């Protein structure tokens, strides 16, 4: 499992992590060791690139992306 997959699985399941992500998404992604490229793909909502970076090419995969609306 990639760091990106681990990040999304934890984010989907952990309400406290979701709160931290809403406050500072870049810090949360950095704590998971995500690359700058992965962080940018998440922040831009680039699902095609996220699929490539995660190693998943199955159209059944979905990504939860929570935007920080206060920025």
Layout of secondary structure:
Elements: H1 3-13, H2 15-23, H3 25-31, H4 36-44, H5 47-54
Helix pairs in contact: 1-2, 2-3
What would your notes on this structure say?
The structure is a single chain. Helix 1 crosses helix 2 and helix 2 packs across helix 3. The protein is mainly alpha-helical and 71 residues long. Helices cover 62% and strands 0% of the residues. The radius of gyration is 11 Å and the shape is globular.
Give a short overview.
The chain has 71 residues and is mainly alpha-helical. The protein has helices at residues 3-13, 15-23, 25-31, 36-44, 47-54. It is globular.
Question: Which features characterize this protein?
Answer:
0% strand; 71 residues; mainly alpha; 5 helices; 62% helix
User: What is the residue-mean pLDDT, rounded to a whole number?
Assistant: 83
How big a fraction of the residues is strand?
under 5%
Please give the share of residues in helix.
55-70%
Q: What gap, in angstroms, lies between the N and C termini?
A: 31 Å
Largest sheet: none
Name the overall outline. Answer: globular
User: Could you tell me the number of beta strands?
Assistant: 0
In terms of structural class, how would the helical and strand content be classed?
mainly alpha
Total of helices: 5
């Amino acid at each position: 499992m990639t760091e990106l997959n681990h990040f999304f699985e934890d984010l989907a399941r952990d309400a406290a992590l979701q709160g931290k992500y809403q406050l500072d998404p870049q810090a949360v992604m950095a704590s998971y060791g995500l690359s700058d490229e992965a962080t940018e793909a998440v922040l831009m909502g680039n699902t095609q690139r996220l699929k490539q970076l995660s190693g998943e090419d199955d159209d059944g995969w979905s990504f939860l992306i929570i935007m920080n609306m206060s920025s």
